[in-house]
Structure to design on (707 residues):
């Protein structure tokens, strides 16, 4: 569905089900140069198992208009604005990579409105190399190649987003190209990387979060290696950690394990 | 990960890892119609695309899935679907994108079976095709109608080896808001990567070079994930709610994978032209040596082309390596490794001499196939393309005396000797007026 948030049309995937105010709600947040479809399997499952799911394309990404958020704080505010527009009081927040920082920042502002917080492929600080930052502007195809190279742990994935027969590195690369092409006026690639690199609020944010936090980390993650999440885990009031033997794209490389981890967490 | 791994490694490993249950290193052959559900909830989730996994082997199978990942990896696509034959793959592509009232613009230089499907059979179901010369860019553009939904051509047209200028034709297709589907059977991803040049979808008859041993019939349909179905606005099949699958909007479910979702969930489910897992396993065996075989196919072909080009009984060799071939320059640019080992040549003399030539070959096998590890020969005008009239044959670059060769992996000297012997027999048949075999 398309709804107007902060004055601009925002696309929100709802898992094939209409929003029902009587059900609890989960909100999934994607990472840099991705869109809602990276959460396809997990969000569709919850949508058919008693939950509302809201999976936006972040502003300036694919179906959502406007400029891409230039900071984690701005992105978090757009998520909060979405919840306020839809008059949703309580929420489970789930974010991946850049989306995990957005979820954390939003949780620190929403306080008791957040029942659970799940952070996948996260790290803090989430530094982005100068090479990648520069390439995301001057040579985005090369930057996409590098991100693809470092985002997957193997070349023999289980059945995933498109079902059996999916070639995940190709799928990820095609999605990044599509999202980049979707916004000729702004560069969501560079904006996302810059937001990750400059974010300095996680120490403060995690101190504000009182709800249980689940960290799902990939042992073979080269984008956000698990050691990068240690400081956040140590600071969290109530942290659980699920380690999976895959790379950065956990939702597609280990779709069932991620789903099962989330199911247990929100049960 | 992807760019850390080269083509030859992908040909051996993409989609497969040692079997977690048994440690088997080779890809296991899963000859199982169905797969046990963990629970009722698991079953429902699989059916409703909330989880990914195998349900029934018409829709997916673990052995087939390895093949599908492997060809997608080699082509640089997002995924693939294995089908019962190359024809089934073409049919699946067309019927996923259009129904009655749809229109295709296709190259004239096609495999005879593809031509039949488009020009006769699909027309019976309300899908029309306009045929245009592959090199005539203006004709492609002028053939577009409001109901056009697809451009289709072969990377290297069968059997005249007209090279498709994929970059130019895909640009015309995209201007018209439709995808370009290419048949890369003759070239395989070892010779050309159509997605890198602008193609959107690829079909293979895996029967040919991919399996490579003349033992199976199978097809593959690969999606590059590049075509924006929503932006085009012409493909309600992919962008609007589909009552046949719980009102699913495929382009919302997966931004770049809508085509494959519908092709599998509707096309395989309802038309049912799936690949046997045993076939998939055999094609995987073939793909493991694809780089080695293609290199030999190409080098052997060049030896044969060079031999035939200077033989007095040969009027013309239709191979893009020849400077007088219409696609010579384009082939140099798009296919630097070579243009396939299937080509035709025109024999001087009568139809009877052509018959004598074919019948006196000993190593070349006279049969209807190409891309075998063994060398093959056929007379297209009387076999693969016999339903085409003279004008259509001419448009496809086929003469009444054309002989098509598929060069295999034998010692090239032996192939030359075999051709020499048969050409001599053809020469004698011309002199005596009787078939050479009858006088010896």
């Amino acid at each position: 569905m398309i709804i107007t948030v902060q004055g601009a049309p925002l696309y929100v995937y709802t898992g094939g089900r209409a929003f029902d105010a009587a059900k609890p709600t989960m909100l999934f947040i994607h990472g840099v140069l991705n869109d809602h479809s990276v959460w396809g399997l997990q969000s569709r499952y919850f949508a058919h198992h008693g939950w509302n799911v809201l999976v936006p394309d972040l502003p300036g990404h694919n179906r959502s208009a406007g400029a891409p958020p230039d900071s984690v704080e701005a992105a978090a505010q757009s998520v909060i604005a979405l919840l306020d527009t839809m008059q949703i009081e309580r929420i489970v927040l789930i974010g991946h990579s850049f989306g995990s920082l957005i979820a954390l920042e939003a949780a620190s502002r929403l306080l008791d409105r957040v029942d659970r917080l799940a952070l996948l492929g996260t790290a803090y600080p989430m530094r982005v190399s100068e090479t990648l930052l520069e390439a995301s502007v001057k040579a985005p195809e090369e930057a996409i190649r590098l991100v693809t190279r470092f985002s997957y742990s193997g070349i023999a994935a289980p059945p995933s987003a498109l079902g059996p027969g999916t070639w995940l590195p190709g799928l990820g690369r095609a999605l990044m190209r599509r999202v980049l092409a979707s916004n000729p006026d702004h560069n969501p690639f560079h904006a996302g990387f810059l937001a990750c690199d400059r974010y300095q609020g996680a120490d403060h944010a995690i101190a504000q979060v009182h709800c249980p936090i689940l960290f799902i980390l990939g042992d073979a993650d080269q984008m956000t290696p698990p050691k990068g999440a240690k400081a956040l885990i140590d600071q969290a009031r109530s942290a659980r950690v699920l380690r999976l033997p895959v790379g950065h794209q956990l939702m597609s490389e280990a779709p069932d394990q991620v789903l099962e981890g989330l199911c247990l967490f929100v049960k | 990960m992807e760019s850390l791994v080269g083509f030859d490694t992908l040909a051996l490993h993409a989609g497969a890892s040692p079997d977690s249950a048994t440690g088997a290193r080779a890809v296991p052959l899963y000859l199982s119609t169905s797969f046990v559900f963990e629970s009722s909830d698991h079953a429902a989730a699989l059916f409703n695309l909330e989880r990914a996994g195998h349900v029934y082997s018409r829709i997916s199978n673990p052995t087939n899935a390895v093949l599908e990942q492997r060809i997608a990896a080699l082509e640089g696509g997002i995924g693939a679907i294995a089908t019962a034959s190359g024809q089934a793959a073409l049919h699946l592509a067309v019927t996923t994108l259009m129904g009655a009232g749809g229109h295709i613009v296709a190259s004239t230089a096609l495999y005879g079976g593809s031509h039949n499907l488009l020009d006769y059979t699909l027309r019976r179901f309300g899908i029309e095709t306009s045929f245009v010369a592959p090199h005539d860019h203006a004709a492609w553009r002028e053939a577009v109608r409001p109901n056009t939904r697809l451009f289709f051509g072969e990377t290297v047209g069968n059997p005249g080896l007209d090279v498709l200028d994929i970059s130019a034709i895909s640009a015309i297709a995209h201007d018209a808001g439709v995808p370009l589907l290419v048949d890369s059977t003759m070239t395989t991803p070892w010779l050309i990567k159509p997605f890198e040049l602008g193609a959107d979808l690829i079909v293979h008859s895996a029967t040919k070079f991919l399996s490579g041993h003349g033992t199976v019939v199978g097809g593959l349909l690969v999606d590059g994930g590049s075509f924006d179905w929503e932006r085009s606005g012409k493909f309600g099949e992919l962008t609007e709610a589909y009552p046949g699958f719980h009102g699913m909007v495929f382009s919302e479910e997966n931004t770049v994978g809508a085509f494959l979702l519908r092709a599998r969930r509707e096309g395989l489910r309802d038309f049912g032209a799936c690949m046997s897992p045993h076939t998939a396993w055999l094609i995987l065996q073939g793909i493991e040596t694809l780089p080695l075989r293609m290199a030999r196919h190409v080098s052997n072909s060049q030896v044969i082309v060079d031999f035939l080009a200077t033989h007095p009984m040969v009027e013309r060799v239709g191979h893009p390596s020849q400077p007088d071939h219409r696609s010579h320059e384009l082939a140099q640019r798009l296919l630097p490794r070579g243009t396939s080992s299937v080509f035709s040549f025109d024999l001087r003399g009568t139809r009877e001499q052509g018959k004598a030539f074919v019948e006196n070959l000993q190593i070349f096998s006279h049969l209807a196939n190409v891309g075998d590890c063994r060398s093959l020969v056929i007379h297209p005008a009387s076999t693969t393309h016999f339903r085409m009239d003279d004008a259509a044959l001419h448009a496809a670059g086929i003469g009444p005396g054309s002989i098509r060769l598929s060069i295999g992996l034998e010692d090239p000297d032996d192939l030359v000797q075999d051709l020499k012997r048969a050409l001599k027999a053809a020469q004698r048949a011309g002199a005596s007026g009787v078939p050479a075999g009858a006088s010896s």
